[in-house]
Amino acid sequence: MCIHDEAPSTSQEPTTTSTFLVDVKDGARDALPILFALVPFSAVFGAVAMERGLSLGELLFASMSIFAVASQYVMLDLFGQKVPVWSIVLAVLAVNFRHVLYSAAIGRHMRGFSGPQKVLAFFFLSDPQYAASENRAAGPGLRPAYYFAYAATVYLTWISANVIGALFGSLIENPAAFGFDFILPLYFMGLVVGFHTRPGFLPVLVTSASLSLAVYFTLGSPWHITLGGLGGLAIAAALSTPRKATIDV
Amino acid sequence: MSDIVFLIALCALVTYLTRIGGHLVLSRFGAINHRVEAALNAVPVAVLTALVAPSVATQGLAEAVAIPVTALIGLRKSLVVSVSGGMICLLALRAIGS
């Protein structure tokens, strides 16, 4: 975890540079496993978008500016059904509402970010970006170099795979064939368990899982994410005792 | 501007607002209550669990087993080991099942 440079440095400059390089390397490395899941899904999205009559330019505009695959599917789907614009935007808001919670939580770990860096960083706050950043913040600390290396790896892969899917859509294999479809749930599960020492871990996990399932089978998707998540947060808040608040994890 | 370009721009704006909004709202408050602090510390566990839960219940036996297996390995081992272990378990069960 803790990596120091090989030669003792005479000034602070080399140490800073080496921290920077380690952050960049770790950020790119931590993003690698999810690329296996991201590439087929991005390619499929590219292919579907072309099928629905988007031009390559419109597809690129959507993927580069929205950068949230679930909500892009929702948008594409509803656009085809000729429903009013405001209801499409509302559906996208519902799918993306969990980001509000990510944003509030991870913002506390961005003390090392400048104002403009934050403005840019929040643009890239996808599910894996958030999860990896929380993990990093709990370890060596979350610095801009790590965050943006992870973001760039994911973003560039996402855009490239979109284009490949748009151009060669018919050649794409079913992502389920190699189990790639399931890397993301496993990755998120692995990350969740990484936080098992946090206060209230088990009650939060059980509450969120049960509430998510209950909502999923009644109200339906995407409400299970936000409501299940909020249920877990309520339990964490209820179990909290004043002294714990000073521990920065 | 065509309909779809306008729609994409709106969706991009709404998505960005959700991504920066939580931080903007929270940073208006100086010191935050310990319960809010605890809730925010629980965000990764609560929200990611809520995101994953339906995958356990709706996909099939291989998936329903692979996720808890990943979790159990993750209690002791690194993320790479737990995710790889879960994948191996998933592929093995899918191979048997099909």
From TrEMBL, chain A:
InterPro entries assigned to the protein according to its UniProt record, in alphabetical order: Brnchd-chn_aa_trnsp_permease
Bilayer-crossing regions: 31-50, 59-79, 85-105, 145-169, 175-193, 200-217, 223-241
Organism domain of life: Bacteria
Signal peptide: none
UniProt KW keywords: Cell membrane, Membrane, Transmembrane, Transmembrane helix, Transport
Keyword Cell membrane among record annotations: yes
Cellular compartments annotated: Cell membrane
Membrane topology: Multi-pass membrane protein
PANTHER family documented for this protein: INNER MEMBRANE PROTEIN YGAZ
Similarity field: Belongs to the AzlC family.
The name this protein goes by in its record: AzlC family ABC transporter permease
UniProtKB/TrEMBL annotation, chain B:
Domain of life: Bacteria
Listed transmembrane segments: 6-26, 38-58, 78-96
Keywords: Membrane, Transmembrane, Transmembrane helix
Xref: Pfam families: AzlD
Protein name: AzlD domain-containing protein
Organism of origin: Roseibium polysiphoniae
Phylogenetic classification of the source organism: Bacteria, Pseudomonadati, Pseudomonadota, Alphaproteobacteria, Hyphomicrobiales
